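Re: [help] complex structure
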Amino acid sequence: MPTKEEIFERIRGALVEALGVDEEEVTPEATLVGDLGAESIDFLDIVFRLEKVFNIKIPRGELFPEDVLTNSKYVADGRVTPEGLAELRKRMPFANLDEFAKNPVVQDFGNLLTVADMCRFIEGKVEVTG
Amino acid sequence: MRWYWIDRFLEFESGRYAKAIKNISLAEDYLHDHFPGYPVMPKSLVIEGLAQTGGLLVCEYNHFTEKVVLAKLPRVVFHCEAYPGDTLTYTATINYIHRDGAMVTGTSHRDGQLHAEMELVFAHLNGEHQNKVFYEPETYTRMMHMLRAYEVGHASDGSPLLMPGDLTVGAPPKESTTR
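Output below.
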């Protein structure tokens, strides 16, 4: 049962290996896409490493609900609709969507996820001590 | 030319690891461009050989029902060069295999000396590619047969490795496995 600190360290290790960044660059506020340079294929790599290091399963779309962003029910003219935002909030309780909600352009969504969001995501899936 | 960057499997343990060799020969055209008068095995083709070793290992795990592609190389390190007359031994080991792909560690040895080491991430194409046919399964099994995989290979229970036609047709893809 890892502590929150251990969860952060293991996530940091996975991101250093997957993205080739230095440890110092992986801060809780860093965004995966904007600050750490993650591309779409990197998310597959990151999910594999997180599953292995935490011994958990991360179903497709659970960390990054790409199916919402490509659903015409939730997206119109390149922007996420109010229904889409509600669905994203439901699917991503670990992320803070308030800033994105002010101007919900689909193309900007990729830059939403921070390292802290990933920590909260993992904390929701494992038993945390301390 | 034919796009074969390994010549024979030495070992093949389904779902675990595979070992194959690549013999470098002056009869291969590309060596005379890389470089003229000083032939050196291109590192990109060593990576392709390891991708074929690991890729067939990952393909076989799901009985060639998944479309496996090399998606990413998180880390590649070369320690020395390789030349005509060398035999490279490639070892691909599955670290993690999943419904969406696999992570494989690869090494290349040149006469017992570590030549290269790398991580390879394979993805299973689905979604929009679900119903497309890239290759018939027979293409892969023909390649496995030519590379002698069925002569040296073993299933996870130690029994001889069998071609998919001998197995239950339409077996579902297996769950993820951590090594």
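The interface with chain B takes residues 17-18, 20, 41-42, 44-45, 47-49, 51-52, 55, 57, 60 of chain A (CB under 8 Å).
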